[in-house]
Amino acid sequence: MRLGAGAGAAHSPMLQSDLPRPMAQWPRRSLLQAAAAVFGSLFRPKAALAASAADPAWQLSDQQWRERLSPEAFRVLRQEGTEPPFSSPLNNEKRPGTFVCAGCQQPLFASSTKFDSGTGWPSFWQPLPDAIDTQVDFRLIIPRTEYHCRRCGGHQGHVFNDGPRPTGQRYCNNGVALAFVPDA
């Protein structure tokens, strides 16, 4: 049956059997994949939320992390939370220096790569070499790329393709996941 054929075509419902087989099954398959991703992310163990630490010296228990971090830093770094926008004093940090992971002091960003994205979170157009790892995040159904400190696995934020030149990327970081070390 051709769509739009015949006198009653304007009122004929489009049947799934009228579509090519792969197209007819695509929406259902996509819906099931998205539901599985959401379900999986909601019920994964809290300890598995933060990426694993590349450095064995930083593979700490939740209790050890709680002793090192403020409750808000623990929620963001170890449980992949997000701080409220415009809540970090680092939004206004403009001195020359280095932004480091608040969990392990790993240098992550040079201050020369920081820019005002208007989003309410410290934003950078490029991390330092070998400072971060990325993975796909499906918690909002639409896949995003999240990034973690390579040393301790602490969640930092998400990277988007709407940043300035030269990279075109915006590393949107939770301020509580960072500390600033000014140049000497």
Tell me the layout of helices and strands.
Layout: H1 21-42, H2 62-68, H3 71-79, E1 97-101, E2 107-110, E3 114-115, E4 123-124, E5 132-137, E6 144-149, E7 155-160, E8 170-173, E9 178-182
Antiparallel strand pairs: 1-2, 1-9, 3-4, 4-8, 5-6, 6-7, 7-8
Describe this structure in words.
- The protein has 184 residues and is α+β, with helices and mostly antiparallel strands.
- It has a single domain (46-182), classed as Peptide methionine sulfoxide reductase (Metal Binding Protein, Guanine Nucleotide Exchange Factor, Chain A).
- The chain is 21% helix and 22% strand.
- The protein has three helices and nine strands.
- The protein has helices at residues 21-42, 62-68, 71-79, and strands at residues 97-101, 107-110, 114-115, 123-124, 132-137, 144-149, 155-160, 170-173, 178-182.
- The chain has a six-stranded antiparallel β-sheet with strand order 3-4-8-7-6-5. Strands 2-1-9 form a three-stranded antiparallel β-sheet, with no helix packed on it.
- A hairpin with a 7-residue loop joins strand 3 (114-115) and strand 4.
- The longest helix has 22 residues, at 21-42.
- The termini are far apart.
